Fold this sequence. Notes:
Blueprint: H1 2-9, E1 12-17, E2 23-28, H2 31-41, E3 50-51, E4 58-59, H3 65-83, H4 102-107, E5 112-113, E6 124-125, H5 127-132
Antiparallel strand pairs: 1-2, 3-4, 5-6
Amino acid sequence: MREERAVxxxxxxxxxxxxxxxxxxxxxxxxxxxxxxxxxxLPLTAPAPAVDDHDGELVPDPRDHGTRLWDxxxxxxxxxxxTDLPPASHGAPARLMVTIDLDSLKNGxxxxxxxGHSRNRGRRVRGERGRHRPVRGRHPPVGL
Length: 144
């Protein structure tokens, strides 16, 4: 029991740039987490033969098991994003990111209508106030 607790408390995952244009993923978790990951990913790792463009014959999947496992992890993450169903215990994913240079942010915001916002009820918001308006819910602020 004590060892399981230590493993649980020591769980981690890191995704870091590898310096060669890719990423390195490392992690540690309990045996149950590992079994869950395997149950989700292994069914997606079966070799997928392809059709040769030149003669139309089936060719074996050239990917090794590690490559197929990576592809399964990426496909599972993409599916999670596409289905728009985040875990119930955490917030919704970001839906909006606006990129604007500092000068435009300081000087270029015109009066903006905020239609449907519960506080403004479609009234116009002065640019100055719009720059300082806190963002709640699904659109967290992002700084670059």
